[in-house]
Structures are given as structure tokens and as C-alpha cells.
Write a structure and sequence with these properties.
Layout: H1 2-43, H2 50-60, E1 64-68, E2 71-74, H3 75-91, E3 99-103, H4 109-119, E4 123-126, H5 133-143, E5 147-151, H6 155-161, E6 169-173, E7 191-193, H7 195-198, E8 219-225, E9 233-238, H8 239-252, E10 260-263, H9 270-283, E11 286-289, H10 298-305, E12 309-313, H11 314-322, E13 336-340, H12 344-354, E14 358-363, E15 372-376, E16 386-387, H13 390-395, E17 400-403, E18 429-434, H14 451-456, E19 458-460, E20 468-478, E21 483-489, E22 493-496, E23 499-502, H15 503-510, E24 518-522, E25 531-537, H16 546-556, E26 565-569, H17 583-588, E27 598-603, E28 607-610, H18 613-620
Parallel strand pairs: 1-11, 3-4, 3-5, 4-8, 5-6, 6-7, 10-11, 10-12, 12-13, 13-14, 25-26
Antiparallel strand pairs: 1-2, 8-9, 14-15, 16-21, 17-18, 18-20, 19-20, 20-21, 22-23, 24-25, 26-27, 27-28
Length: 626
Amino acid sequence: MATTALVGAHALAYLDARYRITEDLRAARGIVKARLALNRNNRNDRNSIYYVFESAADKERDRDCYVCEGVTLSWRQVQLSVNRLAHWLLAQGLQRGDTIALYLPNKPAYPIIWLACLAIDVVPAFINYNLTGQGLAHCVAVAAPKLVLFESDLSPAIADVAASLGGAKLVRWVDTFSKGAATEKGVEGEMVLDEGVLQQMSTERIPDERRKGIKWSSPCCLIYTSGTTGLPKAALTLHGRCATAFQVWTTLNSFGPKTRIYTPMPLYHSTAAILAVGVAWCAHSTVVIGRKFSATTFWRDVRDSRANVVQYVGEVLRYLLARPPSPEDKQHEVRLAYGNGCRPDVWERFRERFGVQTISEFFASSEGNGSLFNRNSNSLGAGAVGKEGWIVSTFQRNKQVLLRVDPLTEEPARGPDGLAIRAAPNEPGELVIQIDNSSPYQAFAGYHNNPAATNKKIMRSVLAKDDMYFRTGDLLRRDADGHWYFADRLGDTFRWKSENVSTADVAEKLGQVVDEANVYGVLVPSHDGRAGCAAIPLSSGQQVDFAALSAHVARTLPKYAQPLFVRLVPALESTGTGKQLKVQLRNEGVDPDVVKDEVWWLKPGVGYTPFAKEDWEALKAGKVKL
């Protein structure tokens, strides 16, 4: 028996080693192919990622390009629509390098508009369609667009901020998917762009001259990130970085013309825009665009569209698992799920219940200059956000590093020589990524029209005098086998519903109705990320009007940023410099066995109501979806 067990252990070790080498070679091959393609494109003056799409469209022609709610567009149909829209944009007087703001929900028009901008070297700013009021006005202002293209159904939000948009042309987009198009009240001074207008435009290809001289370091779009403080910042997303991601991801996951990717993720995020839409241009794959995520209809939509790959963020997989088991759970063609935020406790349960063979997890940020990935089809490294074998580690040597963090200052610790100290194996440390602005894959472009925020993300003299690294603001740990695991976020942000939430911004909004609030994120059972919690002091004798507070947060904050919990504390603690202390509050969370203060919660469909022990138990049992 002992001999049999020993042989079995050796066999398992052999299979694990073989698997590691295979996956390591796959990732290395993607990196090499990306670098060769970038060099070739640079030599041929074809750095624009527009050519990635055009090459696929010229070859695939009548094959499915985009599918949405039963409507299918071929590559050729998309190409003709892109040409028409590009000519229309040119007719509006747009010059190379100009920006436009794109404020649309998920629909085929989204990638078509992006492609039309790429064809004429105009930069679209992808605005979160959940934003309204000050947040919306700010994001548009940051982009300084010549034109704001918005969904017909979102007209009221644009009308509310139209006076503050600085003279940009307002263009209302109306198409098959604009549900309120027939009755929607327009915005004063707007233009209306619909199929009738576009049919009058030429379908001729935009000449190469319009894209001549585009560099890999030129921006191809602006994607917003909340950052560490304040309102959202517009990350400059570069042609070279996108082209690298397209090729690496295509190779890593073996995507091709028969791949059908279903994504209900928002197209204004890099996850869907770059790793679904853009990757599909490289792989010649079909993208099935879900208008909005619904756990109830997810698998039905997947089956109806014949998708064989699905995209997720962590909450998506958890919500799917929370649905009652069904005989149809494995009645689909999906072979791979990819995205970010799949927690270790979800990983194997999702794979086993739904029969999805491979989970391809990644770690990256919109503005960052590096990434981690873990394509995983067995239990080895399940739950890791990245893995590196010997080959990939050779490519990445000193490029992506974990630094020990001072627990008091939350800044990287430095040794006697003034240089940063590497974190030990399995020790959480801040991930920093080496900056090389002469490299398409290591450059850090920063934020559009925000040099102060850009400089704040750069750390100098890290491993050598005067070197530069990008600070992710994230704590990770790396084990001895090369697996990377997410640990936490640094600073005054928390991540909820796949969005980075600025505590300062939320506190500012709450300050309009309460004297003071300390905002932080708390862990909640059966949910990913951290939910917003606001500690409000009673020391000033203030009484909280929770009905008014419910209405205020609904009006002034996006849903993902609304504090789901309010803790009434005797007083707020702060440092000598006036900085609010959050660590203890964050660690205590809202567990009634730990927190003796009165806690209220934003009960779904009700508003703020007292948070009781039975509510906590319902969360723990997964009976409540926040």
C-alpha cells in the first residue's frame, strides 16, 4: 500500500510539473508573439489597433462579429458601419488627436464607434453610463471633448449637466437598442444621429494617411478609474499596450474564429473593451454582448447565443452559484471563463457545478503597465490572480515586484541604503511595476490632463538609484511556486461591484446632510470586495434622518459607491494632522458580535433600516444580495 501511495504521489508530481511547463510555455509564446507583432507594426507604420480589426474583417467578412439580443452583425456589416460613422465624424470637423465622450450602455454601437474613432485617429473617452450629475460632468470635462455622443435613453442625465459641458457638440444616438427613442425628450441644441443619417454617408475606407505616424505610445481611448482619492481620473490607454494584451490573451487562451465570447460586463471598462472586444479583433472571434448582467438569464443567453467562452468579475460567479441548482446548469458549450476577482472559495465550486473546464484569472488596472494571469484547468494554483514559471519569470525579472509595507504609514519600507525592501515569499506587499517609457509594454502614460495624479503613482529609487516603478496600491503575496494572490488594497479606497470607490468622494457627499462621516470598506459574507460603511459621530448631538440620507445617497452617488452600512459612533478618532483613523473600524466591520454600536443598513428595496443579528445571519447564509 505504501509503495502504491508513493507511486501515486510521484505520478501526481509529474503531472503537476508537466502542467506548469505547458502553461508557462503558453504564456511565454504569447509574450514573444506580441513583441514580434509590435516590432513588425512599428516598421510598417501600422501601430494603430484599427489594423487589427481591419485584418480580421477583410478575412472573416460574412462570419458573425457581434451578437446582441438576437441581432447578429457580420464582420463586413460592422466594417461598413464603421466607415459610415467615420465619415460622419469627419464631417463634424474632428481633427487628429481630438477627443469625444462616449456615454452609452452595452450595445454593438459601442465597439463600432470606437473603431470609427480609431479609423480617423480620434480618442474616445469611455464614460460610465451609471454616472450622473457632478460625476458625469467631471468625467466629460476631464476629457475636454469636441463632441459628446450619448444614448437616447440617457438624455435626462445629459440634460441635467448640459450647461457645464463647455460647448461640446451634443449628439443623441438612436438605434435598434434605444428603447426610449420614440418618446425620449431631447436635449436643447442636440444633433440626432440615427440609421437614416448614417445611410447617407460613404462606405469608402478611410485612407491610411489619416493614421500615418501613430506611435505605439499614442492613446487609443480613455478609460476611467476612481484612483485613490477624489473624482474619477481618465487613464491614457495606449495602442501598444492594447496590442500587447490582444496578442497575449489570444495566445494564452487559444482563442480563434470559432470562439464565441459572451460578456455582460460594461464596455466602458477595460475588462470588456480590451479583453473581449479588442481581443476578438486579434483572434477573429465573435463577441456576444449582454446588455446587462442578470443571474436569472445568464445561462439562457449563453445557450441561445452558442457562446463557448464567458467573461466575469468576481461577483458574477458568486451570483450564479447563488441561483438554485438546475438540470440545465451544464447544458451549454462553455469551455472557459475569464475575468478578475474569482475568489478561492468560488473557484472550484463554479467549475464543478457548471462544468466549465478552465478559469483564466488575471490581475491588471486600467492605467497600469503590467499584468498577471493564471489560466487554470486544475486545482494547482486555484484562486491565484497570477502565476509565473521559470520561463515567464525570466521575462519579468525585476519588472513586477512586491515591496514590504510599513503598517503605520502604508508606504513601502526602505532599508539603510534608502532603497525599498522586497517582501518575503508569502508576505503581503505592494505590487509595483517597473516603468520603461521606451517600451510598448512597460510605459506608464498616466492620466489625461492630470500630471499631479500621474506623478503620485510613480515611485523612484526602488531597487536602484533613480529607477521608476508604477504603484498599484494593491497588496499581493507570492508563494514559492510562483503563484500570486490578492491580499487587499492600500489607502483610502475600497473595491465594490468591480469599481474602486473613493472614500473621500463619498464622505464629501455625505457631508451635505450630516456633520461628519468616516467612510471605509467592510467585508461582507457571501460577497466579493468591500461594501461601503460610514461611521457617523454622535458627539455633536446630531440626529441622523435616515429617510433623507437614503434619498440623498441615491441621488448623488452611483449605486456601487452608496454606503450600504452606517455605524453610529460616539466620536471619530483622528491623527494629529487630522487624518481620520479607519483601520480599526475597517477591521471590526459590521459583525454584531464585534460591533456594539448601533448599525443601520441600506436594505434592498427598503432604504436605511436598523441592522439586526438576523440580517447578519441572512448575509452569512447567502440569502441577501447586496
